[in-house]
Design brief:
Elements: H1 3-19, H2 21-28, H3 34-58, H4 73-96, H5 99-105, H6 108-121, H7 127-143, E1 145-146, E2 152-153, H8 155-174, H9 182-203, H10 211-239, H11 241-248, H12 251-263, H13 269-299, E3 303-308, E4 311-316, E5 323-326, E6 333-336
Antiparallel strand pairs: 1-2, 3-4, 5-6
Helix pairs in contact: 1-10, 1-11, 1-12, 2-10, 2-12, 3-4, 3-9, 3-10, 4-8, 4-9, 5-12, 6-7, 6-8, 7-13, 10-11, 11-13
Length: 347
Amino acid sequence: MKIKNLATLYAILAAALYAVNVPLSKLLLDHIGPTMLAAFLYLGAGVGLLCYGLIQSAAKKGAKNERLTKKELPYTVAMVLLDIAAPILLMLGITMTGSANVSLLNNFEIVATSIIALVIFKEVISKRLWLAIALVTVASIILTFEGEGALVFNKGSLFVLGACLCWGFENNCTRMISNKSSVETVIIKGIFSGLGSLVVALLIREAIPPLHLILYAMVLGFFAYGISIHFYILAQKELGAAKTSAYYSIAPFLGVVFSILILRETPGLQFWLALIIMIISTFIMVKDNIKLQHTHDHEHIHTHSHSHGDTVHIHEHTHVHSHTHIHGEDSENHTHNHELADHQHNH
């Protein structure tokens, strides 16, 4: 298989692995408390990438990134705390609304991250991106209502939006350490955020699940967050940020497909209207991404690229960073790859 074709496959697999997280998490939530599940998903990603890092070190492969220092401690602590809150809110949301809804609502993270970056870091937002942000916001508002003929708030959607807001702040903390070791950062996020969520689960007296369910959750976290990140980075090295993010932007829509196939969900009219709006907004963001990447290639302007949840945008910027962010949505896991020529967040 040609290298470019393999890289494309990596990008699509990264999107698919992340997308399947929500419906499979919903199945696990029938047997595991939401806070416990958030804990073991993150621990699975952290422990899995710890093993990966040890193997990589033994083989003497991988980029030589700077390690975290005391200077980055405030951002690291904030990152971990936000990564404790966000997945718990997400899991609570999944228990109260359809997983197809959750998959689409994850796109609201781009709104939260962009507005916070604008207000705090004075970053530039293009006109196209403002339009996309407005469309995502409208679609998210539509998804926060349920019922036919009545304006009834969907509490689950509100929890998911709360998770996206936490991840928006977390993205902007993580960008401050984007030049550090990607594997080290993900390990810290996974293990410490996972342990933090576990402490919260024990304090609120959630039942400890059976060992086999713990293993299922950790394996899901490893693949949906850890391996997804790894594939994304492999794809980006060959395809570049713009093309990789364009392929990865199918993740929320794959999440919808998986939710319907795995859980047999039948979304209502509001969902389908929101889906159409989300598709349009994603198209606008991908087009904006590729256009600005083209400008970067020909005019040598430094760009600042963000991938939030499942969508990506690029801004002109005076510094070059690379940052890949993933959740469980993030979930939430984040990687930083200093080899790449932009700054990017990928859930």
